[in-house]
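Researcher: Next entry in the queue.
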Amino acid sequence: MITRTSSVDHIPGWQRDLADSITSVSELLDILELDSLQVPFCQASMQQFPLRVTRSYVDRMRRGATDDPLLLQVLPAIAESIHIPGYSPDPLQESAAMPAPGVIRKYHGRVLLTVTGACGIHCRYCFRRHFPYSDANPARDNWHAAIQHIRLDPSLSEVILSGGDPLVLNDVRLGRLCAQLEDIPHIARLRIHTRLPVVLPQRIDERLIAWIDATRLQCVMVMHVNHPNEIDATFTTACTRLRTAGVTLLNQSVLLKGVNDDPGTLARLSEALFTADVLPYYLHQLDRVQGAAHFEVDRQDARVIMDTLHAVLPGYLVPRFVEEIPGAIGKVDAWRPQDNATAEGLPETATGSVTSF
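Model: Structure for this entry, 357 residues:
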């Protein structure tokens, strides 16, 4: 007897789980045992930047809690529709830093590729929530101009895969792109900026690990975890697999009002990350993207938080508190800008020391 195998059987489980993500506010609230009258949301924001969140991430939210820090990161709030001066669709002016479709050049020695506009989760504070992916990205798998740009510039040693989330791409497409990068002699490192190990840990499967093992490039993965409640056993297992494959694991967070704007939460986050073999790397001052003003933490409050973190944590567990200034030569230290001279060549509004990473 011939057994017929459905094509669905050949689809990795993580892709099926990703396709099954929650995109309905009413479904999300039902799962969390919340009433829509308890949790008002903005339908207009949904049309411009839809809700999207994996079921794995929702499983870590507290039932019946309107102030759950994970829920607040994904629920379209009424405040998103309020126009606030100083907040713009392109706060980092990335559209002016694209020498080729899909290529962003801001800092010396490295280049960023926006390999996809898709994500496993739509974070409401995302600085690329208005990004023109359809115009900025190459056609499917047509990376010739981007690869040629990298090939012709020997000053580049590192390529950063971003998006969207690069791990949303399947292993074949990722492998095809990275094989082209491996053929460029002056490229030594591959950095992957991703939230999938957090919101969809099953993405870190045997196929991905095999691909990482096979590349000649030194691999760095920068996670994005904002709150200790995002870390569970599935995330830790994914990190262990990556570390075993030789991947350097770092984390970057965004300081978010109502989510993680207290030193106790951030201290627990650093401790939990380090237990999972991830080193705290950056804590970002919010990028002033249109629709996210309600997440911004007052700078003086932020400095008090950082003072406390330095008092209670060893130095290697304290992330650098930084912000990104268009035109700067690197991330700007936002912790004690009053103690530092304005960096040469920065706009007058940008004060603080500059880090090269």
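Model: Residues 1-5, 337-357 have pLDDT under 50 and may be disordered.
Researcher: Noted, moving on.
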